[in-house]
Amino acid sequence: MTTTHTLAIPGGRLRYEVRGSGPVLLVTGAPMAAADFAPLADAMASDYTVVTHDPRGISGSVLEDPTQDSTPELRADDLALLLDALGADSADVFGSSGGAVTGLALVARHPQRVRTLVAHEPPSLELLPDAAEQRAATDDIIATYHRDGIWAAFAKFMANAGFDQGGEGAPAGPHAEPTEQMLADMGRFLAHELRGTTRYVPDIAALKAGPARVVVGIGDASHGLVTYRTSVALAELLGTAPTEFPGDHGGFIGKTGEFAEVLRKVLSA
Fold first, then answer.
1. pTM of whole model > 0.70?
2. String of DSSP letters for 149-202
3. DSSP 3-state assignment of 90?
């Protein structure tokens, strides 16, 4: 059974879902909402109390000021408040893409609240040797959105990330018939989330200090994606090897069962 709840957060409210029983597993994305993780949450619910949510400003999580930028720090603090609402001192956390960056910020800001963080392909572009070029590309994507609209910007985003137009795991794009909510979420991602997420610099010292264990996840089919490079760079800075998961950036969508099995093994290690 899945139950839906709302939580007051600074400047808005957070919509979240709870299913299953056992230790708490927070599943987080950015900009991906709770619905995108439902199959993975269902697959993990036999062993965990799985909590998914719509990140601030996305889908059912509304803000008083919809022009407020979404930063990893704000989203991390939201997760800490969510743990408070659940009565959980700590949780395992699976974060994908921008949600992996949220998870990195959560460990740095609230280290006692995380048992194990699985950071799956965080787009930590500042860790790359071509960070300046990546920064310029991100600025161009955002400027394109304001000048030419969602689809022109999205095409540039997909190309820079290394996706083809049919690739899984990117924010919903023109291959899907867009709903009004999808368009609103895409616009928010481009205007108010993309820059803050990709420019977040992980606090490597804090991540290594513990007590949280940080595991970097990488798709076994993600070669060619910029998030493959960022994941390798992060793992090297942490002094660990990345853990391979089935599929590419969105392997939890395309290969849910296999992905869940690897996630279980990582969390139980």
1. yes
2. -HHHHHHHHHHHHT--TT-SSSSP-TTS---HHHHHHHHHIIIIIHHHHHT---
3. coil
At residue 77, the 3 state secondary structure works out as helix
pLDDT (tens digit per residue) in 186-195: 999 999 999 9
Q: What is the DSSP letter of 63?
A: B
Q: What is the pLDDT of residues 115-171, one digit of tens each?
A: 999 999 999 999 999 999 999 999 999 999 999 999 999 999 999 999 875 544 444
Which tokens belong to 50?
A: 């799985």
Measured between its terminal Cα atoms, the distance across the chain in Å is 28
Q: Which CATH number fits domain 2-129+200-268: 3.30.450.20, 3.10.150.10, 3.40.50.300, 3.40.50.1820?
A: 3.40.50.1820
Peptide bond into 31 cis (omega under 30): yes
Distance in angstroms (rounded) separating the CA atoms of residues 234 and 38 = 27
